[in-house]
């Protein structure tokens, strides 16, 4: 392709509202453009990258005998009522009515739809196991879309759903998907870790997340340097052996909320509707004056609605308050707060159905408590089991020390068991011709998020450095004075045609721009291999080559060039 026919929408300025590097570079390199909050246009360069990611995923899924399907983005609410998630999913599910006043939603995930399809189409155990996948647009009305396509409202996901007669078969496919995911992320050129994970709102029995290691990640993951042990920190802490620190935190769990600070008082205090607050908790450091340091808020609640002034903080939304403000207000140090990662001691329950093992705010440096369990009946007490994992602790598996890094969740696999199949009565006839409820697994990859995550790991001060496998073009040719020199033009076109014929994707910069402008653009958009052709090189029978990661270019004899490049 030639730049003259490509929308090369590069800009020099760093957009002010983009805080993470991938978001900045995706805007600057002309990969994406914002449309509205959490909605993005993908420009031609970006689509090329997306299609590469999809192709790798598709190839590996097909190799694992998964079958591609395509399900509608618009989903009838009846199926969500049937599964019981209509209520539980909360406001991330965007609902609307059609002209006949029927209820629909934009699919944030497709368990209900695939289970409905399978219960209608699959009759016999002989047709199982089966694994269906799609690469499809999802919509989640994220409370706080951020970091560009890393957490957008509309995004592309590869989601797969497997169906089985028994748990052994589910386990087999789960392991096969685990291996497939490892192959996919390896081929994508990412530095990633599979980690044990909490099953969260989707529910189920076993689960792993795949995290790309990057400081901008929203999750903390813990892993052992000397073994395969790795877990999302929420789970890591629940599994951690009780060391001295754990003993210290145990005391904490025993502090009871004074009766006079009832839920009513707290709601009053924060002007919250009562039904949204399930429990309150007082932790070490709380004072009479500032009793409430942690709240469990049911459902996906917009914390911006809760004005910080209610906690005697500066009149800004909570997340804007500094640690010091919070410390002054609540009498203890603030920490990182679990699912929404706000810098305030508030626990947000994303689904009312999920009532265990919360992350709660740290109130001492380096502490990050999880596994906080709430007793539904004893209204005022935090029941037990707050544990905490810190860097350097022995690994729960006994080998090595815990390392803690930030991770971007790019994939997630679950053993769902019969959660959905039971609710939707998805049965098939077994060997004895009896109807039997199916076992189910589900497997997701955030396709659009992968693109951002790849940039988080591959960039320098000049721009993106695409991993080879997902680069929009593998090679760029930057000609010197092509428009003035027929000789340069001839050499450039010959090479362009030869490489293209060999199936290499080449971007030829045929603009009448200064070399500096062309070099800068090609570096910004991150093409791995750069070729420069000019009179001077041709005189010497050489072609200038530079890899995007190289400091300096090198001159390669013309005759050897193709074999050098391939
Ligand atoms: P997160 O914890 O980041 O909110 P999730 O656990 O809600 O993600 P899953 O339900 O596991 O997401 O969906 C499968 C994959 O879809 C995730 O691993 C992630 O890569 C991707 N994904 C989820 N939400 C978004 C989003 N808002 N924007 C882009 N990708 C997303
Ligand atoms: Mg989510
Ligand atoms: Mg998650
Ligand atoms: Mg997940």
How would you summarize this macromolecular structure in one to three sentences?
It contains 16 helices and 29 strands. The protein is of the alpha+beta class and 566 residues long. Strand 28 and strand 29 form a beta hairpin.
Written overview of the protein:
By secondary structure, the protein is of the alpha+beta class. The protein is built from 16 helices and 29 strands. The chain is elongated, with a radius of gyration of 27 Å. The structure holds adenosine-5'-triphosphate and magnesium ion (MG) (3 copies). One magnesium ion is lined by residues 209, 409, 412. One magnesium ion binds next to strand 19.
List keywords for this structure.
single chain; 566 residues; alpha+beta; five-stranded mixed beta sheet; 16 helices; 29 strands; 25% strand; binds adenosine-5'-triphosphate; binds magnesium ion
């Amino acid at each position: 392709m030639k730049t003259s026919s490509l929308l090369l929408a590069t800009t020099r300025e760093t957009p002010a509202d983009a805080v993470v590097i991938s978001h900045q570079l995706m805007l600057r390199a002309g990969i994406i453009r914002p449309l509205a909050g959490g909605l993005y246009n993908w420009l031609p360069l970006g689509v090329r990258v997306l299609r590469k990611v999809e192709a790798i995923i598709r190839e590996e899924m097909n190799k694992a005998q998964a079958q591609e399907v395509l399900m509608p983005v618009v989903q009838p609410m009846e199926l969500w009522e049937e599964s019981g998630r209509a209520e539980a999913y909360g406001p991330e599910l965007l609902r609307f009515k059609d002209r006949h006043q029927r209820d629909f939603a934009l699919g944030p995930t497709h368990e209900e739809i695939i289970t409905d399809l399978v219960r209608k189409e699959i009759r016999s155990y002989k047709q199982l196991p089966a694994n269906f996948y799609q690469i499809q647009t999802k919509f989640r009305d994220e409370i706080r879309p951020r970091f560009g396509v890393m957490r957008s409202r509309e995004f592309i996901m590869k989601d797969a759903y497997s169906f089985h007669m028994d748990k052994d078969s589910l386990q087999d496919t789960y392991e096969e998907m685990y291996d497939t995911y490892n192959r996919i992320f390896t081929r994508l050129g990412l530095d990633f870790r599979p980690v044990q994970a909490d099953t969260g709102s989707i529910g189920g029995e076993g689960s792993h997340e795949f995290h790309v290691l990057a400081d901008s990640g929203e999750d903390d993951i813990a892993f052992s340097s000397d073994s395969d042990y790795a877990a999302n920190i929420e789970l890591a802490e629940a599994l951690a052996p009780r060391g001295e620190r754990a003993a210290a935190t145990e005391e904490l769990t025993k502090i009871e909320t004074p009766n006079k600070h009832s839920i009513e008082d707290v709601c009053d205090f924060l002007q919250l509707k009562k039904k949204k607050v399930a429990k309150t908790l007082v932790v070490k450091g709380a004072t009479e004056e500032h009793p409430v340091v942690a709240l469990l808020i049911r459902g996906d609640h917009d914390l911006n609605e809760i004005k910080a002034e209610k906690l005697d903080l500066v009149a800004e939304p909570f997340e804007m308050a500094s640690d010091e403000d919070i410390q002054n207000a609540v009498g203890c140090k603030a920490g990182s707060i679990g699912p929404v990662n706000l810098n305030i001691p508030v626990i947000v329950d994303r689904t009312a159905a999920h009532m265990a093992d919360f992350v709660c705010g740290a109130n001492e440096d380096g502490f990050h408590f999880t596994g906080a369990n709430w007793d539904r009946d004893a209204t005022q007490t935090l029941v037990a089991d707050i544990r905490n994992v810190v860097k350097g602790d022995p690994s729960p598996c006994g080998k090595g020390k815990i390392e803690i890094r930030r991770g971007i969740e790019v994939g997630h696999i679950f053993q769902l068991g019969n959660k959905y199949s039971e609710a939707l009565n998805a049965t098939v006839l077994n060997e004895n011709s009896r109807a039997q409820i199916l076992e189910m697994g589900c497997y997701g990859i955030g396709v659009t998020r992968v693109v951002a995550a790849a940039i988080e790991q591959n960039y320098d001060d000049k721009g993106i450095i695409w991993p080879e496998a997902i680069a929009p073009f593998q090679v760029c040719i930057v000609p010197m004075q092509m428009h003035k020199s027929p000789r340069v033009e001839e050499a450039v076109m010959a090479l362009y045609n030869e490489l293209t014929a060999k199936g290499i994707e080449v971007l030829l910069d045929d603009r009448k721009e200064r070399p500096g402008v062309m070099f800068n653009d090609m570096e910004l958009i991150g093409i791995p291999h750069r070729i420069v052709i000019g009179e001077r090189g041709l005189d010497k029978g050489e072609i200038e080559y530079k890899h995007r990661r190289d400091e300096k270019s090198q001159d390669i004899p013309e005759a050897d060039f193709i074999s050098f490049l391939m």
